[in-house]
Please model this.
Amino acid sequence: MSWLSDFFGDPANWSGPDGIPARLLEHLEFSALALALAMLVAIPLGLLIGHTGRGGVIVVISANLARALPTLGLLVLFVLLLGTASILPVIIPLVLLAIPPILVNTFEGIRGVDPELRDAAYGMGLTGGQVLGRVLVPVALPLILLGLRLSAIQVVATTTVAAYTGLGGLGRFVIDGFATKDYASVVGGSVLIVLFALAVQLVFTLLQRTTVSPGVSRRVKVRQVASGRETT
Amino acid sequence: MGEPLLSRLIADGPPSLWEWIARNWDTGRVGSIKDLLGDHLVMSLVPIVAGLVLALPLGLASARWRWLYQPTAGVFNVVYALPSLPVFMLLISVTGLSKTTVIIPLTFYAIAVLLPAVVDGLGSVPDHVRQSAVAMGFTPLRRLVQVELPIAVPVVLAGLRVVAVSSISLVSVGALIGQGGLGMLFTRAYQNPFLPPVIVGIVLIVALALVADGLLVLAQRLLTPWVRARRAS
Amino acid sequence: MITFDAVTKRYADGTVAVDNLSLEAPTGEITVFVGPSGCGKTTSLRMINRMIDATEGRILLDGDPVQDIDPPKLRRGIGYVIQQAGLFPHKKIVDNVATVPLLLGWDRGKARSRAMELLERVGLDPAMGERYPFQLSGGQQQRVGVARALAADPPVLLMDEPFSAVDPIVRTSLQDELLRLQAELNKTIVFVTHDIDEAIKLGDRVAVLRVGGRLAQLADPKTLLSEPADDFVREFLGHDRGIRRLQFVGTEGLRLRTDLTVPAGFSGGSPEPWVLAVSDDGRPVGWLRGDGGGEPEPYGTFRPGRDSMRSALDAALLSPSGCAVAVGEDGKVAGVATREALDEALAEAADG
Model:
């Protein structure tokens, strides 16, 4: 416990480019950047494949392969090949590993929508785009958000490991501390990362609660449950 | 770190991969590829097996007493969100720089995936099947072993495939505390910039994962012959 | 009016779902497509709003080929009701019903008030508008499905086995509700079912289709029951065709006797074998023997003019006297239809 007070009590740890605020911001930046890039690729692709039903096999294979790829190995490979002149060699594997969870869950979410619903939507005269945007996406939203959450967990963890290959962020406290036997830094950094991961988890849980229709999550306000006979 | 290896690669031609493997496969010392492969197998297999052994009773209890499921699953959900590296680091003070430090968190991740799989698997037993088993006079234990668990097998094995593949790849992060099995090849390659260890490490880990996945698919076919028969008909 | 003009649907693998179908679904009437699975009834229905496109032939909507109309535009003008209702789970009931008006560009307030009005019309509490589909029973969801199809007041309604997923009691009430609505709205309805009883109950015209998508017979229900075109139709109609046909024979002309009723305190002395005891306020109590012995026996009632001969006959068979009790709208006894009177009416029905 004294490691914790050593780490968090040291004013030097709260300022400068290697202080807690700066490292925290870096971690947030890298994670958000990787997640945003992954979303940019995976969501449209998942919507397209789920909506048209073509290319599903590729999605499943890529997901399995991505799980098997060791993150550390991938990071080292890219850094060795491309050097450390920019953060690009680190961001590439980060994005690559973040894509599959979003892709798979978006695809499965859209594909899993009750065909009757799709039928009813077309039957009422919605165009293809309207069916996707107004019916399929809202109904598939829980799975799409699950994909985002899993991907965010993955990105936060990989960003931590990426500190080993020279990337900034909270992983630096842990990696550098371990190398220099500065255990206050290791333990303090670890606690910070854990808290960061929990905060990310919390954000996505809140996002899920606020964006998913209560009709889909079957979570309904008390007032309506009180008047409803068939609520579960 | 000096210049990117890519440019050196282009200048010098491909590295002598096979020569490096032959030289390092079995040196008889700690750190040979064969040695790391053994470590890797131990550190990934123990969490897979332990995870299953622990998730089964937890899942059975959660399926029977539904109120137990939400809080238990909630806790493991949170655990699952924790990055492995800081968890390893925090465990060092308890278990030291040993394989156990890697094995414990991986076991927890495994439970986090397998617990819902076990509960969903048991939930996939159709009610009429359960009812008719009761009506035929199965005791609860026999019903569990002879009816419910076999029907739950496909869902549980699907979860186990995820666990096996991700455990095998996750072990390598342990290299950052000196306990990474084949992951040690990555740190070695980074400290002394050299491509062959990275390539060998990635290929061996992916291959291990694919073999484990294949074995589990095979196990599923042997354990649930009716699934394939249904698909074929 | 919807016109099928030599319509054929052939799939890429060579299967023929609908084979050279020609028929008309007249304006303001319910036309039912009925037949066993694989007869192409749903395919035929779905070709009307171009959920499926015909391979050959034309389908005309009031003379215009549907092939020439852009599918979304076409569909917004045609109500569509399907088996599981297909309600959007993420939208409140009122927004589900308002879907098509909003697509057509109505303003939100107008669309919602129209939706509320329709909920009431299909027999739902407008307060349900604020709920989500999962909070409603199957029967309620199906009513919402009908309301949603009617929202933009389309002249045409396509209904694809809309009531087959609910239990028999709910189904009966949904069928009655549809007939009541149709009496008010006079839509051109095409209704698909595999249930011949539903077809006979709802249809102004019934098209019986056979496997392979060929039309076996197109007729009004009464004709269908009395003159099935061939063995396939006869078999598909099933047993009791004669009895079932009686539900299309009225009871207006049925001769009623009013001299068979006695006060509840009756103690014997009638030359008739059975007399009907009637309470002080004119309601039936039960059949008594003419000699006054025994307790009142059970009786059956029908409403002359409103109920069919089938109901009258059923009422007669429920009582030991073999007579049916005619009651008015107020539940008071209007008279008694004796066996002789029923006989005459049946003989007339058999002739006509």
Summary: Chain B touches chain A through 51 residues (CB under 8 Å).
